[in-house]
Design a protein that fits this description.
Elements (H helix, E strand, L loop, with lengths): L1 H19 L2 H6 L12 H34 L2 H12 L3 H33 L7 H32 L4 H23 L6 E3 H4 L1 H14 L8 E4 L10 E4 L6 E5 L8 H16 L2 H35 L7 H17 L1 H22 L7 H15 L8 H7 L5 H10 L15
Parallel strand pairs: 2-4
Antiparallel strand pairs: 1-2, 3-4
Helix pairs in contact: 3-5, 3-12, 4-5, 4-12, 5-6, 6-7, 7-11, 9-10, 10-13, 10-14, 11-12, 14-16
The protein binds zinc ion.
Zinc ion binds next to helix 10 and helix 13.
């Protein structure tokens, strides 16, 4: 079994990872002499200051999350909580639900100061316009969802570890894959909990008509009933449009900070990019790659967690992985792995995002007057709205960016003209 896994991971790295990493693209991008994305001096200074704060928040939040799990073990809080609940609750399942709900509540509360600071920063830079009351309500709703869904899910995985102590990582992986597909499917159904949606047709019929031209060129079918306007302006000044859901729940969403505020041509490009994710099957591809990746990660995490319990179990009051506190060891190891592997998952994501940029620019060819200028203008507007620095540190891009930087995307868009000299695009014949 071990040898099969080793071969699978080696094959996976060789066949998929290396070409997909986009490292070449990352390193090849030197700051160009005439960058397509720039900001006026005053905005530039603010964007650079914000970039530093964002980096600090990103790593601070991740490391603090790991520290909280470690401290729960080191101070024996996890094992004390397990013993205390075992004395009070009746059935094992109720004990488990209580333990994991409390664990999730503690983790959320511990992370709250970081979240408060992040929201304060966003308000100060004029990106968020959401008042503290409304923001706290969102936090409370998210906590409710975390407890209602997260606690039973953790209990399920904990149960798998108990009933299959040797091969739990394999069964746990199967459960994780099913949950991943299911959550992609139901995600759009949870979205109205946080934001209001209405048919895009209602407020922006001309935009819908233009969007349908792009849909026709793409040869797909996204009927106007699947296009929504999200009332984002009550919370943010940022621009966005996205596609979510799978199969029957698939939809296109344009924020009301975008529709009407930037030219429709630019929205067509953003829409083309988003549709590219669908047409090029990025969601199932991402899920499939994620699944293979996760199998290897689960196996390695299981080995590490077993070793930690043998080495530190006595000190942490943890007897076995199959216990509740033992499961916290697994959570800690999985969280460390997920943080350490962020550069890999983000590299995958950047590859898909770049492909979607190419697709988006080709999708509006023949519909807007100048696809290159339209795409560059869209990136300028996106970058200015989110105060994106034109010169992010390559390390920060490598570790934290799920998209290529706005500067890279705009530079590419400016140069990308496959139709010059009678050529053709990558994804469209005409
Ligand atoms: Zn995208």
């Amino acid at each position: 079994m071990r040898r099969v896994l080793l071969w699978m991971s080696a094959l996976f790295v060789a066949a998929v990872l290396l070409p997909e990493l986009g490292l070449g693209q990352l390193l090849a991008h030197a700051a160009s002499a005439h960058p397509a994305y720039t900001l006026p001096p005053e905005k530039l200074a603010r964007a650079e200051a914000l970039a530093r704060t964002r980096t600090l928040l990103y790593f601070g939040d991740a490391l603090w999350g790991l520290a909280v799990l470690y401290l729960l073990l080191r101070t024996r809080a996890a094992s004390t909580l397990e013993a205390w609940i075992a004395r009070h609750a009746q059935s094992r399942a109720v004990q488990g639900l209580q333990f994991f709900a409390l664990l999730l509540a503690i983790a959320t509360l511990a992370g709250l100061p970081v979240d408060v600071y992040a929201h304060w920063v966003s308000l100060r830079y004029g990106i968020s316009v959401q008042g503290w009351g409304s923001w706290l309500l969102d936090v409370a709703k998210a906590l409710g969802l975390t407890l209602g869904i997260g606690a039973p899910v953790l209990l399920l995985f904990n149960w798998i570890v108990r009933v299959a102590p040797r091969r739990y990582w394999l069964w746990g992986w199967m459960a994780a894959v099913v949950l991943m597909v299911f959550s992609a499917f139901i995600e759009p159904l949870a979205e109205p909990i946080f934001n209001q949606y209405e048919p895009l047709q209602k407020s922006n019929p001309a935009l819908v008509a233009d969007l349908e031209k792009v849909v026709a060129r793409m040869g797909t079918r996204i009927p106007p009933e699947r296009m929504f306007l999200m009332k984002a302006s009550v919370k943010t000044n940022g621009l966005n449009a996205y596609v979510s859901g799978l199969g029957a729940t698939k939809r296109v969403v344009v924020w009301d900070t975008t529709a009407g505020r930037i030219p429709n041509d630019e929205i067509l490009f953003i829409f083309g990019h988003e549709s590219g994710h669908y047409v090029l099957h990025h969601i199932p591809k991402g899920l499939a790659c994620g699944a293979v990746f996760l199998l290897v990660v689960f196996r390695v995490c299981a080995g590490m967690a077993g070793w930690l319990v043998r080495r530190f179990g006595a000190r942490w009051g943890v007897q076995a992985l199959a216990g509740r506190a033992g499961f916290v060891v697994l959570l800690l190891v999985a969280s460390v792995a997920s943080f350490a592997l962020e550069p890999v998952t983000n590299a995958f994501s950047r590859h898909f995002e770049h492909e979607a940029d190419v697709y988006g620019q080709e999708a509006i060819h023949g519909i807007v007057a100048d696809p290159q200028r339209t795409a560059v203008a869209a990136f300028d507007d996106l970058g200015a709205a989110w105060l994106e620095t034109p010169t992010p540190s390559p390390f920060v891009v490598f570790w934290t960016y799920s998209h290529p930087s706005i500067a890279q995307r705009a530079d590419f868009a400016l140069e990308y003209d496959p139709w010059a000299n009678g050529g053709r695009g990558r994804f469209f014949v005409r």
